[in-house]
Amino acid sequence: MATIPNIIRVGHGVFYVTDLEASRRFYVDLLGLNVLHESASALYLRGNEDREWTLKLELAPEAGIKHLAYRVAGEGDLEALVALAEAEGLPWRWESEQDRPKLLRLQDPFGTPVAFYAESVKYPWLLQRYDLHRGPGLQRIDHVNVISPWVQDTLRWYTQRLAFRLTEYTEDDEGRIWAAWVHRRGGVHDLALTNGTGPRLHHFAYWMPDSASILRACDILAGAMQTDAIERGPGRHGISNAFFLYLRDPDGHRIELYTSDYLTVDPDFEPIRWHLNDPRRQTLWGARTPKSWFLEGSRLEAFGGGWVELQDSELQGLPQHVI
C-alpha cells in the first residue's frame, strides 16, 4: 500500500513579474511585505508572522506563475511523493531555491505546477516587532486558489492521494461540484478549486490581523492614488466567513487579503454544502462581483517550459450577481 505523504501546509508561491521595481512598490511600499532576500532579478518576501519567505517575485519576460509550494513533514514524505509521481507517470525533478536546498517539483495530473519541501532556513519572526511593521500589516501566507475545468476530479485526487480534507463546496442540482475548499493545517483551506478555463491561478492569499487592517489597505491604496488595484471588496464571503479584499498587482496577479475564518481541526467536521445559485456563498454582504473576478487568472508554467495549455470547462455560466 502506498504511503500517503504528510503535507503540513501551503508554503510559498513563485510569481514571474515583468517589472521588479513596480512589483516592489506594490508589495513592499504599499502592502508592507518584508524583504528577506533580494537580487537584481528577484525579491523574497514574507508577512510579519512568516518565519521563512512565502512569496518570490522573479523577473521574467512574461508574467505568470512558476509554481505553488507546500511544506511536508520530512524527507520520507518527499520520497512518498516521488513514488506517487512515478506510479502515476507525473513529471518530476529535484530543484533548489533560496533557503530551500531540496525542492521536489512536479506537475499534478491536471497541469498545476506544484513543489514540495521539508527543509527551510528559519528567521526570527517580526510579529511583535511593531516598530518594523509597515502598510496594513500582512501577517502570514494563508492559501492559494486554482481555476480548474476539472474541479471534481482534482478534488478527488488531492483528497485521496494527498489527504487534503474538504471543508466547503459548491454543488448544482445535478450533483456536480463547481468549487471546493480543502486544507491540511486545520483552517478553512490551504487550496481552493474553482471552476473555469484553466488551469490558472485565481489568487494567492495572505491572512490579515483583523478587518480594520483590510480597510487600512484600502486607505493606503487610495492615498497612493492606486484604487484601480482594488478589484473586489471589501466584503464578507459566505463560504469561509472571511472578510476579504481582492487586489491586482502591476502584472495582473490577484492577491487576496483575508481574515476571520474558522477552525476545522475536529476529525468529525462535516463539510458545508452551498447551492450554486445561492448568492450568499460568494458574498454574504458587499458589492456585486466584477466579471473579471470569475474570468481572469494567471498562467501557469508547464513542466518543460512555456505555459500550460488552457482548456474550457464543461460547466458553463456565471452567477447572476455580477457587474
Automatic annotation (TrEMBL):
Its cofactor is Fe(2+). This is Manganese-dependent 2,3-dihydroxybiphenyl 1,2-dioxygenase. It holds the Pfam family Glyoxalase. Keywords: Aromatic hydrocarbons catabolism, Dioxygenase, Iron, Metal-binding, Oxidoreductase. Its EC number is 1.13.11.39. Belongs to the extradiol ring-cleavage dioxygenase family. PANTHER family: GLYOXALASE FAMILY PROTEIN. GO terms for molecular function: biphenyl-2,3-diol 1,2-dioxygenase activity; ferrous iron binding. Residues 9-119, 140-260 form the VOC domain. The keyword Acetylation does not apply. The gene is bphC. The keyword Iron applies.
